[in-house]
């Protein structure tokens, strides 16, 4: 009722004992479940503005990408990534959708934006 303060008055004098298990039952390997990947949150807000910057690292061998996305609710999302020679704009945009950073409808728009940025800086 009064927030966190009353919780401090009820400290336990000694820790609670946890029941012990003597041995773990052996699990049948055929019945063992494979771990399922955690589902990622789906982004529901759309991107209203995009800015991108690319810089060469200090050793001049790899590009560093900084992407600023402004979403519908004025949230600013800044993402950074060291580009690999095999990276392309479509795969990067698809990965951002997969991990819930952008809305699925913005995938093609972001891929085109990144492609134009790659040509601008790498030329």
Automatic annotation (TrEMBL):
<protein>
    <submittedName>
        <fullName>NRBP2 protein</fullName>
    </submittedName>
</protein>
<feature type="region of interest" description="Disordered">
    <location>
        <begin position="18"/>
        <end position="41"/>
    </location>
</feature>
């Amino acid at each position: 009722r009064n927030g966190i303060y009353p919780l401090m008055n009820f400290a336990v004098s000694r820790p609670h004992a946890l029941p012990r298990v003597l041995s773990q039952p052996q699990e049948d390997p055929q019945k063992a479940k494979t771990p399922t990947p955690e589902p990622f949150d789906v982004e529901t807000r759309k991107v209203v503005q995009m800015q991108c910057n690319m810089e060469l690292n200090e050793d001049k061998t790899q590009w560093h990408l900084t992407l600023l996305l402004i979403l519908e609710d004025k949230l600013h999302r800044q993402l950074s990534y060291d580009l690999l020679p095999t990276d392309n704009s479509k795969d990067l945009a698809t990965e951002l959708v997969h991990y819930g950073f952008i809305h699925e409808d913005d995938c093609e728009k972001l891929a085109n934006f990144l492609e134009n940025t790659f040509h601008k800086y790498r030329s």
